[in-house]
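Entry for the shared binder. Reason: the reviewer on the internal report wants the predicted structure included alongside the sequence.
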Amino acid sequence: MRVHTGDKPYKCSLCDKSFSDSGNLQRHKRSVHSNRRPYDCCYCGKLFKCSSDLECHVRTHTAAKPHSCRHCSERSTWPDQLKTHLLKSHNEGSWFTCNIFQKIFTQITNLRIHILCHEGVKPYLCSECPYHNSCCSCASSCT
């Protein structure tokens, strides 16, 4: 019900975030405000705050592809890869279109990053030089 009402009674005591569910508040505190990393990778020993982060990391070692296409034999490591496949190969799902250039994207996050270009916002700073960019990869501009 809180999803529909927008009610968020669980407030973080360490910042101004609020949550509709106590479990989401606990996950927030663990992932944002805690340095505790109780989950370790059995392949390389890297430590993680959340079991879901560990699970995703382990795929880099195992090359697991748990997401399968319902139309063909294609499998993917990540859900976003499967969504892109469904859009491009089977025309299933929704494209996201820039209303200025009519450029299309498979992910809403990529469209949002693209829109930053039109707004002149450049929040990403290269770690190697003073170059700022509106997307997080400035490798093509940093030489």
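Summary line for the report: The beta strands are 10-11, 18-19, 39-40, 47-48, 67-68, 75-76, 96-97, 104-105, 124-125, 132-133.
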